[in-house]
UniProtKB/TrEMBL annotation:
<feature type="domain" description="NADP-dependent oxidoreductase">
    <location>
        <begin position="16"/>
        <end position="315"/>
    </location>
</feature>
<comment type="similarity">
    <text>Belongs to the shaker potassium channel beta subunit family.</text>
</comment>
<feature type="region of interest" description="Disordered">
    <location>
        <begin position="317"/>
        <end position="336"/>
    </location>
</feature>
<protein>
    <submittedName>
        <fullName>Aldo/keto reductase family protein</fullName>
    </submittedName>
</protein>
<dbReference type="Pfam" id="PF00248">
    <property type="entry name" value="Aldo_ket_red"/>
</dbReference>
<keyword id="KW-0560">Oxidoreductase</keyword>
<dbReference type="InterPro" id="IPR005399">
    <property type="entry name" value="K_chnl_volt-dep_bsu_KCNAB-rel"/>
</dbReference>
<dbReference type="InterPro" id="IPR036812">
    <property type="entry name" value="NAD(P)_OxRdtase_dom_sf"/>
</dbReference>
<keyword id="KW-0521">NADP</keyword>
<dbReference type="InterPro" id="IPR023210">
    <property type="entry name" value="NADP_OxRdtase_dom"/>
</dbReference>
Amino acid sequence: MVNYRYLGNSGFKVTEITYGNWITHGSQVENDAALATVHRALELGITSFDTADVYANTVAEQVLGEALKGQRRESLEIFTKVYWPVGPGGANDSGLSRKHIMDGIHGSLRRLGTDYVDLYQAHRYDYETPLEETMQAFADIVRQGKALYIGVSEWTAEQLRAGHALAEDLGIQLVSNQPQYSALWRVIEGKVIPTSEELGISQIVWSPMAQGVLSGKYLPGQPAPVGSRATDEKSGAGFIKRFMTDDVLSAVQKLHPVAEQAGLTLPQLAIAWVLQNPNVSAALVGASRPEQLDDTVKASGITLDADTMAAIDAALGSVAETDPALTEESSPKRRP
């Protein structure tokens, strides 16, 4: 079964392996397969589920809501997000204005088939909306019982500090940040994590396997396997391109003996690596087939010894991205 961790300085617990449906539900896999995968996640002990209104332009939320129908609501932790454009893309169909946030939460609750979400997250930072307006809207949603906790995604250390201060003034809890983080993408380690530790904010990390590159299935000097994420524009090919270089792929191949020595598969090693960071509360994993989860959940509860961590650093250290400034690039300076 999957272990639980506290989210931020709250009393709220989430499964340290959380199911995310970014590029699967509503786009990459058929609904029957999506439902079967969610049900397998539940069987394996995953009770935390992450989605967003923008995923498959709202369809992913609908599919997740259908898959969770009939489950005891109190035994689930459901997260969703607001910021990116949904619907026809009108003037107020994106961002973190009060209007878009209020429209967003009502639409998400309707599609998910629930009265509240456990965690409502700002999917990016909105430079066009005063932060006070954004945090006041989140505070009102919490007081209305439509969300229990507030989180953000890909905010810089400075943005986290400002948001946390306003949340405290408003009497709500900003408990989490959702950044990209993996053994190949370590940009949050320099500033975001130290600031988060100081403020009592946890990380819910996405792409712990670097879009599948850390599975070892992509080989240097060879074309990507047919049907893989790297060949499918609908399933994140644009995100994986930065890792699809021969030097990165060659470095990843050096992890095979490290994983073997630890008694783990490469996906398990990658997920276990992010979970060694005490500021990480959960690693988001997706799956297009139920059996994929059978492997990845085994990373829960694994402790990697110092020699294993050092061996991973030795293999990937020269190709891992560590520039803290890259976090700021995640949020557009103008609404999309």
